[in-house]
Amino acid sequence: MSKLKFAALALVMAGSLSMAQAQGHGPRGGMMMGGPGMMGGHAEHMLDAVDASDAQRAQIKQIMDAARADLKATHDSARALHAQSLTLFAAANIDAVSIEALRQQQQALHETISKRMSQAFIDAARVLTPEQRAKLAERMKKQQARMAERMKARGN
């Protein structure tokens, strides 16, 4: 395989991976990327852990629902770009210029998603008290440490 074809293949695969991340966990999206899982069991469990009031839960749900609605069209576009990347990958001739243009579009969408989700998390954090945020941060640190241990045990 020529170096150009290998580089083009690597770009398509990297773009596909970045779009999978931008889309969240599977076609529905996940909590971090504005998909339907944004106020799923995990978020509810975290709010339970910090003793969030019903009013706080309602406000945070409203914030996340608004972010999800704002990002629906963006996620649809991301899926369309992902489909385009697969088409480019399967083409008889690898078009490096088209692949790069598509990668740039994918990055722009990912940036849009990232900015909107950051704003949603800022808004949600403002609903919680400083003590609740500290408790949540400590819990998340412990969770990350457990995840790192599991990854290490699996050899990743």
Automatic annotation (TrEMBL):
Coiled coil: none annotated. InterPro entries: Cpx_auxiliary_protein (IPR052211), Metal_resist (IPR025961). Pfam families: Metal_resist (PF13801). One of its GO terms (molecular function) is unfolded protein binding. The keyword Hydrolase does not apply. Keywords: Signal. GO terms for cellular component: outer membrane-bounded periplasmic space. Residues 1-22 form the signal peptide. PANTHER family: PERIPLASMIC CHAPERONE SPY. This is Periplasmic heavy metal sensor. It comes from Paucibacter sediminis. The lineage of its organism: Bacteria, Pseudomonadati, Pseudomonadota, Betaproteobacteria, Burkholderiales.
